[in-house]
Amino acid sequence: MSVAVQLRAASVAVGSKTILGPLDLEVQKGEHLVVIGPSGCGKTTLLRLIAGLARPAGGSVAIGGQTVSEGARLLVPAEKRGIGMLFQDGALWPHMTCAKTLEFVLHHAGIPRAEHAGRVGELLELVELQGFDKRKPGTMSGGEAQRLALARALACNPELILLDEPLGPLDAGLRSSMLARIDEIQRERDLTLIHVTHDPAESEAYTDRTLVMEAGRIRSDLPSEPPSR
Description:
alpha/beta; globular
């Protein structure tokens, strides 16, 4: 199995204070890693470091065998890392329809315009939003909006998806169905998932490994029970 993400003595600082790390971490291709820990422990900062949204203070970050950060240098910008990211509140553009949201992402990824309609249709079907082309986020339920956010994260066929407490706004039933769909898509596409959550029970049925963080460091890193898929 190949390594999807590798951190070596990687750290993030604010001023003179180190808020994350130094961390050593490897995530294997196709793995579903869940990251848990108390508020402020560095979970989201870890995702931002991998995504290229937080500048490192030291160490290195590699994605798919390519070094993307080294020392305090961002060698590969966030938009060139080939990562999909799903945020807690979806972070959708309220003025854009579902179709326009996905077309915008495809355009900025350099996908030819002639392919947009077909790709948009495929993505909406993938997240079970067929017929939602002209709907805007404000007219959608919380679960529907998060499925659109998932489609946006998948639009450019990334191999790595970062999930930052994406199910927080949803009720228990919707969380369960959303997790099941994410798991199906992960297995269909052989995706690597790094999933931050405040609720360790949230995804235990699908998790391969659980990382527990505390005060910016890794407290424990253990395989999960075999997934009941």
